[in-house]
Amino acid sequence: MQNNHQSRDVFYVSDGTAITCETLGHVVLGQFALVAHEKTFPFIETEEKLSELLRTIDLSYQKNGIPPLVFFSIVIPEIRTQLLHSPALCYDVLESLVQRVKDDLQLEPKPKLHRSRSVSKDVDTYYDRIAAVEYTLAHDDGITLKGIEQADIILLGVSRSGKTPTSLYMAMQFGLRVVNYPFIDDDLKRLKLLPEFEIHRHKLFGLTIDASRLAEIRQSRLAGSDYASLRQCEDELAEVEALFRREAVPYINTSSLSVEEISTRILEKAGLKRRLF
Amino acid sequence: MQNNHQSRDVFYVSDGTAITCETLGHVVLGQFALVAHEKTFPFIETEEKLSELLRTIDLSYQKNGIPPLVFFSIVIPEIRTQLLHSPALCYDVLESLVQRVKDDLQLEPKPKLHRSRSVSKDVDTYYDRIAAVEYTLAHDDGITLKGIEQADIILLGVSRSGKTPTSLYMAMQFGLRVVNYPFIDDDLKRLKLLPEFEIHRHKLFGLTIDASRLAEIRQSRLAGSDYASLRQCEDELAEVEALFRREAVPYINTSSLSVEEISTRILEKAGLKRRLF
């Protein structure tokens, strides 16, 4: 019977940020019963940095008696060749896809330094993205509704339902301008939509959450407070969900979802286009 | 001679968020002279959503007379099979890597719904990440230095040198707690490090930027102001860079770097470990 919990050193290596390598390698390894000791080596673009990496690979091999795994993306031919000759199991994360697209489309690939999301690729697009982060930050948590007409989406929800991290992720990843607005205690007694939202109705999107989860999150902030009591959480959520239904505001429950999942689901339901950087 | 600018519909398809598919597909296509019309289809996990996608593929094929490209990651076998039988060029973004790791390690993969960065995978880790975003937001732009001892890193720089987006990215992507502190006009006349930073010296990291680029960014905010004048930018940057050198604070120039590149370079130089989610 094979060993179900092999342990391996895993290195993510790139002449760029190595973010794509680590994301992909991490997902691939998630399918195996393997304890991975992961380390990332970005910007391997000089002989000096390569030497350091090769030493690390050698040491790992000597120490463990088995080759480390390397998920890599390297364009510079000499660096690539030397890496491939090291005592590691090397996986080029792009090669097989590039090869297949090449064959299918009969186009020659032009490998280039892997600068996904780099500034130089498209300056205006990049600054749009930064502007989206700044807009979103300025419109966090109801700070202001000035400039609301520039919003791509307006998130509504009770305090601690996940609005802020979701807003920032949507801005950073997809370049969207997000306003988020909390329902606070005072609003709850006479719950209705702000008049300012009326002409932006199509941009409204609600976040809700299980009351028990919300109470837990609030407890970690203000233990023992009314604000964090299960009763208070239940009341607030009931009011707010009733409002969402009454006003036909689409909404999702964020309880077991990551910011990536929440953001993606909102984009999908709201019919917003993702922007790729 | 082959056509150098083929145009193709490109679909990113997953039973998860499809973020990995689109990142990877986008990078792969970046190597080809191809005009890609990209669209993303997340959460393809029901027959209904699959049907909608298959209709889109059919329509694309009919309209263009050539098959669209599909970069996908689908675990559910029936959905996978139907997709593979559609009139599209389908690329499984994980398959070849999983296969090679399987062969090399002699381990059986256990495909699972692609929930990279999901909450359920590791609740504590996920909430650490959200806590990092909240910490970073609370310590943006010198708002407070309370709790500075919990910071993983402290970014210093003049106004508009890229501190805020970089801080938020480091928190969101790597789960780091970041304090960022601007040098403002008053500080500049008697420029030294705050006494509060003294015992956290090893956490300090500086951002600088080309004066012309800084002036351009500031002009778009406050056109015609002293603040945005090239002279003022040059003076501030000279002062601040002198301080960085005098105090041996490591620093980088952010002018042509994206937040991903800035963050990765800082992590590398500061010897901070990336956390993978």
TrEMBL record, chains A, B:
<dbReference type="GO" id="GO:0005524">
    <property type="term" value="F:ATP binding"/>
</dbReference>
<dbReference type="GO" id="GO:0004674">
    <property type="term" value="F:protein serine/threonine kinase activity"/>
</dbReference>
<dbReference type="InterPro" id="IPR026530">
    <property type="entry name" value="PSRP"/>
</dbReference>
<dbReference type="Pfam" id="PF03618">
    <property type="entry name" value="Kinase-PPPase"/>
</dbReference>
<keyword id="KW-0670">Pyruvate</keyword>
<keyword id="KW-0418">Kinase</keyword>
<protein>
    <recommendedName>
        <fullName>Putative phosphoenolpyruvate synthase regulatory protein</fullName>
        <ecNumber>2.7.11.33</ecNumber>
        <ecNumber>2.7.4.28</ecNumber>
    </recommendedName>
</protein>
<dbReference type="GO" id="GO:0016776">
    <property type="term" value="F:phosphotransferase activity, phosphate group as acceptor"/>
</dbReference>
<comment type="similarity">
    <text>Belongs to the pyruvate, phosphate/water dikinase regulatory protein family. PSRP subfamily.</text>
</comment>
<feature type="binding site">
    <location>
        <begin position="157"/>
        <end position="164"/>
    </location>
    <ligand>
        <name>ADP</name>
    </ligand>
</feature>
<comment type="function">
    <text>Bifunctional serine/threonine kinase and phosphorylase involved in the regulation of the phosphoenolpyruvate synthase (PEPS) by catalyzing its phosphorylation/dephosphorylation.</text>
</comment>
<dbReference type="InterPro" id="IPR005177">
    <property type="entry name" value="Kinase-pyrophosphorylase"/>
</dbReference>
<dbReference type="GO" id="GO:0043531">
    <property type="term" value="F:ADP binding"/>
</dbReference>
<keyword id="KW-0723">Serine/threonine-protein kinase</keyword>
<keyword id="KW-0547">Nucleotide-binding</keyword>
<keyword id="KW-0808">Transferase</keyword>
